[in-house]
Structure formats: C-alpha cells, structure tokens
Amino acid sequence: MAHMIWKGAISFGLVHVPVQLYPATQTERVGFNLLDKRSIDPIGYKQVNKRTGKEVTHENIVRGFEYEKGKYVVMSDAEIRSANPESTQTVDILAFVEAPQISFLYLDTPYYLAPDRKGDKVYALLRDALQDSGKIGIANVVLHNKQHLAALVPVGPVLALNTLRWAAEVRSYDELKLPAVQKKSGVTARELQMAKKLIEDMSDTWDPAAYRDTFHDDIMALVERKVREGKTEEIDEVEAPRETRRSADILDLSDLLKRSLGRGKAGAGAGARSSGKRSKASDPGDAAEATEDTDAAKDGKRRGARTETAAAAATTAAPRRAKSRAPARRAASATASRKRRAA
C-alpha cells in the first residue's frame, strides 16, 4: 500500500471532511547511474565554488535569490519558512466549476483522498454531491511547504486531488506560428471528409492497460539478457539503425489520406473494426468520385430525356402537318381534272 503523505481535512463552508492524502501515481522510469568505465564504480558529485573551483562544505552553503545578474539576496531556512504559506494540511475549497472548463494543460500531479476518523458519511456526501452536480472543486492546498492550486474530483468511489499549474506557468500559444482555422487553412472539403473518416475508423474506448512503455520493456529485456550471458561489464558493438522513409514524405495530402484509409485500427495495431461488408463507395475518396459520377449520369439522363421529348414532339407534329396539307392537295387535283374535261 502507498505511504500516507499527511492527514488533514477538506473544508467547504462550515463543513470539514477529515481525510488522508495518498499518492495516486508511481514511477516506472528506467534509471541509469553514471559509472567509471575502468572500474564500474559510481560517479559522485562535489559542491564547488564556481569562481575558485574549490569544494564548499555543507555548513558554508546558504540559499540566495538572484535579483540582478550576479547579485543575490541571502535567506536562511528560518526566513524562508516564515515567508512560506502555513502548512495547515487543509484542502480549502474556493469554488465549484464545471469539469470541462479546466483544460488538461493545467493538470499536474494526482493524489487520492481517503476518509479519516469516522468521516465516511460526510466524505460520501461530498463525493456523491459532486458526482450528481457534474462539478469539481477548486481548492488551495499546501504540500511539501509549497502552496498549490488543486482540483477536487470524484473518480468512482474515491475523491482525487489533482494539483494544477498556476496561470502564469502555462505558456500562451499566441507566440506560435499556427495555420488558420477551417476554410482559411486551405484544406478542401474532400480532405476534411477523409480525415474525419480516418479518425472514425481509428476510434476506440480508452483503456490505459492497452498501452505499454515499450522503451522500458526493451531496456529491461536487454538488462536480463546481458546478466544471463554474463556480459554485465561489457559494451556490445551495435550497428546504427537504418533510417526508413515513411509515407509522410508524400506531399499530396489527399493521396496520404487515401493510403491511410482502410488501414484504420489495423494500422495502429489494434485490429480492424469494420465487418468488411462496406461497399467501395464507403471510402470517402471513392465516395466523392462516385458522387461526381452520379451527378454526371443525372445530367446525361436529363439531356437524354430532353432529346427523347423533342423527338416525340417531332414525331407527333409530322402527321399533323401532313394532315393539314391533305385538303390543299385534293383541291388542286380536282381543279386540274376540270380543266382537262373542258379541253
């Protein structure tokens, strides 16, 4: 079980919730020591005067704040403690806010809060009220003699305390050169459609256990192999990995998106989600082309229909014209016959 950091209380209004604070994370990083390769002895460090290069003993070391280049205000530990926020071991709630309002950029270190000294009922009351409201608490808390802003968040059955970065600690992105948003960025509707389709194909539920620190695993496997082979103090010659050119070298964004589509989760190593029954036109690129072909076919049909209508009208009009000329032909024939008889 994790070691308890401190006992204290959550305070909001006149309500106090007795709690114990525990770390919510543990370090799994690969650590290396610096060694003397001649004897494999660890390398140590000395504290030296940077101007003279001579070693300085512990009793002669003080703390100082550099207020100008090369000029310092010297402070004792007692002075620093007197200026620090008092360590009250209280999570002092300042306000309640909607959870989505806090950007992940401000999140720092998570801790667990467990009920203490028969505080189960009031602990459960605060936790359940936060869950039902959809809000989280914003609080001040002192940890390790340093004041922090923190978020009090219900996570299932536990209340978590996540320290937050102060506003001045988060850099503004205004200094970055970023592309324009939406239509002004030069992205076409077809490219946007394909990109959204690719996102849809690669979408999954969040499962942190599905992801591994492969660097850690590979280094530990290398350590175990060298111990097993008795090569703990030998450095193997390793060929530099050969660089492989990836599909990102393709300059045509549409072509790159079309190559990515269809791979979906399989390309990310998670397996395809599709049933395989989609038609070819379900590819956004093909869908766009199919739409264009369909529109052309519709135009052709409309032109064909107009041609057929005109032909039918001409066919109908021809008998009418022939019928209208028939009486004139009969009258001319009768006149010619009378002239022959009179002669």
Overview features:
two-stranded antiparallel sheet, extended, 35% helix, 343 residues, alpha+beta, disordered C terminus
Could you please describe the fold and organization of this structure?
- The chain is an alpha+beta fold.
- Among the domains are: 1-25 and 70-167, Ku70, Chain: A, Domain 2; 186-202 and 248-314, no CATH class.
- The chain has seven helices and eleven strands.
- It has helices spanning 77-83, 120-133, 189-201, 214-228, 253-260, 264-268, 284-342; strands at residues 6-12, 15-23, 35-36, 41-42, 63-68, 71-75, 90-98, 107-115, 135-143, 146-155, 158-164.
- The strands form three sheets. A seven-stranded mixed β-barrel has the order 1-2-8-11-10-9-7.
- A hairpin with a 4-residue loop joins strand 3 and strand 4.
- Helix 3 packs parallel to helix 5 (253-260).
- The radius of gyration is 41 Å and the shape is extended.
- Mean pLDDT is 77; it is low at 270-285, 287-329 and 339-343.
Strand and helix layout:
Layout: E1 6-12, E2 15-23, E3 35-36, E4 41-42, E5 63-68, E6 71-75, H1 77-83, E7 90-98, E8 107-115, H2 120-133, E9 135-143, E10 146-155, E11 158-164, H3 189-201, H4 214-228, H5 253-260, H6 264-268, H7 284-342
Parallel strand pairs: 1-7
Antiparallel strand pairs: 1-2, 2-8, 3-4, 5-6, 7-9, 8-11, 9-10, 10-11
Helix pairs in contact: 3-5
